[in-house]
Amino acid sequence: MTTKLYVGGIPYSTTEAALGDHFSKAGSVVSTSIIIDRMTGRSKGFGFVEMANDDEAQKAIEMYNGQDFEGRKLTVNVARPLEPRNGNGMNRRPM
Asked: Does any domain span residue 63?
């Protein structure tokens, strides 16, 4: 298992510091990032939390997946690696 977690359903007003503080109840948080829309500068409502080890990452999934955080239900699972794009802004397979 990896220690990097995908976190969906993050309230738009939440800061990275608040997210890290919340997840620190499951263990040591190495880093947090909330994805921001480049055009609007507003949170996209998802991000990533990296925990110090696999056990703490698993504990965070068990503690927070499906749970309420600041009025929204979180989705927490293992982050998947970014898939390569074809460069034209569309991620389609050629026919």
From this structure: yes
What distance in Å separates the CA atoms of residue 1 and residue 77, rounded to the nearest whole number? 11
Q: How many domains does the chain have?
A: 1
34 or 89: which leads in pLDDT: 34
Q: Is residue 36 one of the residues assigned to a domain?
A: yes
Task: Return the number of other C-beta atoms located less than 10 Å from residue 28's C-beta.
Answer: 12
Beta-bridge partners for 75: 8
Average pLDDT over residues 10-27: 96
Between these two residues, 38 and 82, which has the higher pLDDT value? Answer: 38
- Residue 42, domain CATH: 3.30.70.330
